[in-house]
Amino acid sequence: MHKSWSLNEYVVLILRFVLILILFSISRLTFFWFNADLFREISFVGFLNLLIGGLRFDISALLYVNSLFLLFSLFPLKIKFKSWYQKGLRILFLVTNGIALAGNVADTIYYRFTLKRTTASVFEQFSNEENMGALWVRFIFDYWYATLVWIAFMFLLGYVYNRIKPQPALKTFGWRYWGLSILIMALVGGLSVGGMRGGFRHSTRPINISNAAKYVERPEQVAIVLNTPFSIFRTLGKTAFKPVHFFEDQELSKIYSPVYQPEQSASGSNIEQDRPNVVLIILESFGREHIGAFNRDLEGGSYEGFTPFLDSLIEQSWAFDHAYANGRKSIDALPSVIASVPSLVQPYIVSEYSTNKINGLAGLLSRIGYETAFYHGAPNGSMGFHAFTKMAGYDAYKGKTEYNNDEDFDGMWGIWDEPFFQFFAKDMGQLQEPFFTTLFSVSSHHPFAVPEQYVDTFPKGPLPLHEVMGYSDMALRKFFETASATDWFDNTLFIITADHCTIPFHDEYKTPVEGFAIPLVFYKPGDIDARMDSGLAQQTDIMPTVLSYIDYPYPYIAFGNDLLSQSEDERFVVNYINESYQFLYNNYAVYFNGEEVTEVYDLMNDPLQENNIIGKTDFKDARRLFKAYLQQYVTRMINDDMTVN
């Protein structure tokens, strides 16, 4: 017989968890070894970073997998040391972790077919297969070497498990044992919640698939950082896109195509000179309702809003008083604004498609000599922005860590806007021109506080947001004052928008359409004519419009409109609300449930959307355009076809 060791029950629990964690790391190495030819060169330091980053996702996945095992192992009961109870724990441990390891091993092979980790959509993908049993048997035999790897994992798992036996932490089972057990259960419970979330910071969302990009040098390396159980857990319950087929390919591309083919060629042009810098500013929760320049007729013409500086800038800019966000959350906004990828059905950043290749504005501009950087005053990693900006092609991410002065931390979300905006203005002076930078503000967010020295400085208004909007507007004014004194200012295109709007106050903004209303402003000193554009615009329009403005010479994919070249009657807006697609086109709001139109509103004559006029007017053109748009989007998302090769 093999010798076994009896150890403190809690030590045994730790050792068993460490064992499966080690096996997950080995499975990651196995995954890489089998698929090394599919990954571009990885530096030694970069590879170590992948392995270290992978531990975070492994811990999260294994805490989910072993939640029942941990619970039953920690019960403060004497009975848990009985032979039959321990056998039950052993079966539970081996079965749950065996399935998890099988997922990792299966992806070692399956990755070559999909070039991404398996997600929960795999269940739907194969739900209609009638011969799954035969397929699994074939898989096991055809890829026998992967099967052997899994068997080796299970042998090692079972062997080590059997060699270590738990014994009570105390010799007696009195009140001291109960007290200790309850304390340990509470401690493990708290640590497990943090481990499942990927951290304990209250302002950070639970880690998702896209967060793996934080640890990579190139987008395809995300698959190395992730593990399959985590990818499945994080996409369970998420609505996967189902393929749609409204038109044949030839007809589809005639109705709508997201592929932009610039007429200008790069050959013979001076790519690195004579192009403007581009500065994109995304203001947290700056709904269009609260900006006076966009609402001259509101409250009988007496409405002033809460952003006096932005109002003055709008008077000198090309601005849109019918611009809309493509989502209602910050994580919806970033893909829409910087990659022209709307978050339909679910936020793209947390969807199963978040590791798809995309042509982000930063990556495209890098191709023609731009230096790029993303600035966000929140703790690095917040909202998954750090990871996504890597996928979008930014050269650098500069957040709270790079700011490096916690005295300006607001105690909740990040660095106050005023000092961080100044950091932004000054840091850009270190970049090589032309540059493309993006700033995402943080202060205009719940709990809507302003720095102590500015209490009672700005109008409070009827909503708590209004006072802090005044503060952020002041920070924006001081940013422009600093920037205007720099050498790069006059050769810079500024775009100002918002991530989403917030709670409305006026009835005019309480409709499904105006629930997405945001500002959109293009400003370039001495170049862009000041005008208010009443045509439709959306966040996804920003990328193609910027690329058109700078005469970008290469083809790319964007699910938005080029506002410079497309007429007002060609523009449209797409977003998703209440399980329905909202499509704005030619002064109408059309609602589509994925199969048919359910509601139609005449926004010119019925801005409050009170009268559904479906059946009273022919919306054939709108239906065809949206169906083509949706088919292009869904098909390309499913097939990972979001870039031009």
Q: How would you characterize the overall build of this protein?
A:
With 645 residues, this protein is an alpha/beta fold. The chain folds into two domains: 5-235, no CATH class; 249-259 and 279-638, Alkaline Phosphatase, subunit A. It contains 20 helices and 18 strands. Strands 8-7-9-4-10-11-5-12 form an eight-stranded mixed sheet, with helices on both faces. It has a four-stranded antiparallel sheet with strand order 15-16-17-18, with helices on one face. A two-stranded parallel ribbon has the order 1-2. α1 packs across α2 (44-65), α2 (44-65) crosses α3 and α17 (417-427) packs parallel to α18. The longest helix has 32 residues, at 83-114. The protein is globular. The relative contact order is 0.11. The model is unreliable at 265-272 (pLDDT under 50).
Describe the SSE topology.
Layout: E1 5-8, H1 9-35, H2 44-65, H3 67-74, H4 83-114, H5 121-125, H6 132-142, H7 144-163, E2 164-167, H8 175-197, H9 222-225, H10 228-235, H11 249-255, E3 259-260, E4 277-283, H12 308-314, E5 318-320, E6 323-324, H13 330-339, H14 361-366, E7 371-376, H15 385-391, E8 396-398, H16 400-403, H17 417-427, E9 435-440, H18 464-483, E10 492-498, E11 520-523, E12 531-533, E13 537-538, H19 542-549, E14 556-557, E15 572-577, E16 580-585, E17 588-592, E18 597-602, H20 620-638
Parallel strand pairs: 1-2, 4-9, 4-10, 5-12, 6-13, 7-8, 7-9
Antiparallel strand pairs: 3-14, 5-11, 10-11, 15-16, 16-17, 17-18
